[in-house]
TrEMBL record:
This is Uncharacterized protein (TIGR03086 family). InterPro entries: CHP03086, DinB/YfiT-like, Maleyloyr_isom, MDMPI_metal-binding. It comes from the Bacteria. Residues 11-134 form the Mycothiol-dependent maleylpyruvate isomerase metal-binding domain. Pfam families: MDMPI_N.
Amino acid sequence: MAAGQWRVVLDEAYKALRTTAEGIPADAWDLPTPCERWTVTQVLQHATGDQTAFAAAIVGGAGPSEDPFAPSGRIEGDKLSGLRAALDASAHAWAGVADDDPQVRTPLPQGALPAEVGAVACALDAAVHAWDIAVATGQPSPLHDDLARPLLEVARQIVEPLRNYGAYAPALDAGAEADDVSALLSYLGRDPRWAGVRL
């Protein structure tokens, strides 16, 4: 990855999550998602908590208000205000990181990581949960091969230990002819052809 390219990947992932969340239909908040046992609301809560956790790890401050891995499924008031604040905080935190910083604090079990690995790990979380919400609510996929390629490169560096924490399901076989998006989703334990059922 070219120096500083992680900033482009991160910005695109932020945009994917923000745009997809803003496109959630009013009647879709309780729909099932590719994240087994989680509704659209719960995936949004989880993604919000993860971005808050990255910001807190980098610059300090309060972490998520609830466990991102046990989302309540209830959001009072403006359902998107928490996500907007979390994305803004995460973007602000990464803006203060040097392109080649070798040790950036992260909330991951691996701890501090090189800037390009940690930032793309943060982007991976945002982009993949954007996909979860998009396919659950009938929106276009926010993933494309140019975004999926660097996400997959970093996923292969960080995901295996995270499976032990329940963060990702076991990898699926994408097949030899899979495109980069399908390869990424399959590696993360998601079926690229997933289609939910409207409740």
